[in-house]
């Protein structure tokens, strides 16, 4: 159910930063405005930039936190999720499970 909420919550999901904002709402129990502010600070961008698909696509590539259409050599899947957890300073269960199995 959490993934359905993340993808349905708007802001373009992984095309922009909707997935990251939704994670903050779910994991840290933040309200929408607070979650947007938190993500913007962590990404070092302004809040209006969070929904700019072209800008965020390049930023997501640069940070290695995943894009809709993967780029050869860039992080995807669990590697991207590991970077997201590190960047946002959150604990993601699947990431912790993956780390425990290494």
Structure notes:
The protein is mainly alpha-helical and 102 residues long. The protein has one domain (2-100). 58% of the residues lie in helices and 0% in strands. The protein has helices at 2-8, 18-27, 32-43, 53-63, 78-88, 93-100. α1 packs across α2 and α2 packs across α3 (32-43). It is globular. The mean pLDDT is 86.
List the helices and strands and how they pair.
Elements: H1 2-8, H2 18-27, H3 32-43, H4 53-63, H5 78-88, H6 93-100
Which labels suit this protein?
single chain; 102 residues; mainly alpha; 6 helices
Could you tell me how far the N terminus lies from the C terminus, measured between alpha carbons in angstroms? 27 Å
Which structural class matches the secondary elements?
Answer: mainly alpha
Helix content: 55-70%
> Poorly predicted ranges (pLDDT <50, ≥5 residues)?
none
Please write the string of helix (H) and strand (E) elements. Answer: HHHHHH
- Helices, by number, come to 6
Provide the residue-averaged pLDDT. 86
Radius of gyration: 13 Å
The structural domain count equals 1
* Shape summary: globular
The total of beta strands comes to 0
Main pleated-sheet profile? none
Fraction of residues in β-strands: under 5%
Short description:
This protein has helices spanning 2-8, 18-27, 32-43, 53-63, 78-88, 93-100. It is mainly α. The chain starts with a helix and ends with a helix.
